[in-house]
Amino acid sequence: MSFVSKALAGPIAVLCLLTLAGCATQQPQDNQASINNDSLHQFLESTAPHATASLPASPWGANVQVTAGAAYFAASGKTCRSLQVTQAIGSQEEHIACKGQNGQWQLSRAITQQP
After folding, report:
1. Which one, of 81, 37, 88, lies nearest residue 59 by Cα?
2. Statement: the pTM of the whole predicted model exceeds 0.70
3. What residue ranges of the chain have pLDDT lower than 50?
């Protein structure tokens, strides 16, 4: 006894193949935009771990404080730093910045979160 009629078997097979092909498609790794802020770029490039900078303008808005963690090498081979961003209203956010192949720092999405 067949669960799928012969008329539907072809379209279902094509749909399965397209689904599998979509799962195998890989997104480019370097698609984040560069940080277009000279003050933040310089801060990330040269600051000591746990140093804080007050930035009048940033990718997160005006008048924020950014605290940079120690630089580390990510599995991607890039140099990255964790960032703690404190808004003028007191709220805090965690971000990651990684140095791209072009030498510019880019905001990156966290893959995992440590407790």
Report:
1. 37
2. no
3. 1, 18, 20, 23-31
